[in-house]
Design a protein that fits this description.
320 residues, alpha/beta, two-stranded antiparallel ribbon
Length: 320
């Protein structure tokens, strides 16, 4: 049986700690934790100044993992991310100098400012947890998480993420502006110094790995699996969708539903877990058709329509 109490304890400790810095965004913090528990990667898409970078820093400090930040720019090369082999004149051999990607938690800030060639340097590490440079493969240290940020407002000097890379992000979230009361608390919290400077580690990397293993043991009934597959297939057949959810998307929804169940103190998944995780897990994988784009059809609205029209497993039709 999975140690659900341990998973919930780990999630609560991280969440409470991070919320000392990220105020009024409990749901977004919880989604970030679910990505962490599923060993998935997260895309944070929002306007500047709402705390995207600070969320990543707070997560890394809470866990005590090695953290590095990569500020993406148009002139950055793939070797600036992955590392490079340098010739050592003393030993007369090439030595690998690891880049900032060789760490545990990576913040790729403004990922859409890098060229597609540099963006693609992340693909192998994100999907296979390894890195190949000059024919030599280097495993990534566990846990490994990529937190990427991008600004959806600015388009000048940016390179939109291709569908293949978007699909490798397990979830996408937006932080949004804080409520007036929360913004007042933010002002008060930074009266003397930023709270990130005093944030302490609350769990170890070993505890996080143990929680990740416990999540994989959460029970998922065949009816729930069928529900996930039905939702994915519905996106592929929808009239307003040009490209629907891939099997990788179905797997992401399956994993995040298990993580949510564990955080909710359950060792089994219910349909509400699937419905709650559908939007952050699937919406960024949908590409609406050109005709739907003209009508300003939003992928989230398409997904909401599919969720409303798809029968929930275990439900019965009411008879008079």
């Amino acid at each position: 049986m999975p140690d659900i109490a341990m998973v919930k304890d780990v999630a609560d400790r991280i969440s409470d700690n991070v919320e000392k810095v990220i105020i009024g965004k409990r749901r977004e913090v919880q989604i970030t934790l679910l990505a962490l528990l599923c060993e998935g990667h997260l895309l944070i898409e929002d306007v500047p100044g709402v705390g995207k970078t600070m969320l990543a820093r707070a997560i890394s400090r809470s866990i005590g993992c090695e953290f590095r930040r990569i500020q993406f720019t148009p002139d950055m090369l793939p070797s600036d991310v992955t590392g490079v082999s340098v010739f050592n004149q003393k030993t007369m051999e090439f030595e690998f100098r690891p880049g900032p990607l060789m760490t545990q938690i990576v913040l790729t800030d403004e990922i859409n400012r890098a060229t597609p060639k540099t963006q693609s340097a992340l693909l192998e590490a994100m999907e296979e947890h390894q890195l190949t440079v000059d024919g030599v493969t280097y495993p990534m240290e566990s846990p490994f998480l990529v937190l990427a940020t991008q600004n959806p407002i600015e388009y000048e000097g940016t390179f939109p993420l291709p569908e293949a890379q978007l699909d490798r992000f397990m979830m996408r979230i937006t932080l949004g502006y804080p409520q007036p009361g929360d913004e007042m608390r933010i002002l008060d919290s930074q009266r003397q110094q930023h709270p990130i400077s005093s944030l302490e580690q609350v769990i170890s990397a070993a505890e996080l790995v143990a929680a990740q293993r416990a999540v994989t043991e959460v029970y998922v009934d065949d009816l729930i699996k069928e529900y996930i597959v039905t939702l994915s297939n519905a996106t592929r057949r929808h009239a307003d969708v040009y490209l629907g959810v891939s099997p990788r998307g179905s797997l992401a929804l399956y994993k995040t539903s298990r993580a949510r169940a564990a955080v909710q103190s359950r060792d089994y998944v219910i349909p509400d877990d699937v419905k709650e995780m559908a939007e952050p897990t699937l919406a960024h994988r949908l590409i609406v058709s050109p005709s739907a784009r003209i009508k300003n059809v939003d992928p989230r609205a398409v997904l909401s329509e599919i969720l409303d029209s798809t029968p929930v497993p275990g439900a019965r039709v009411r008879t008079r």
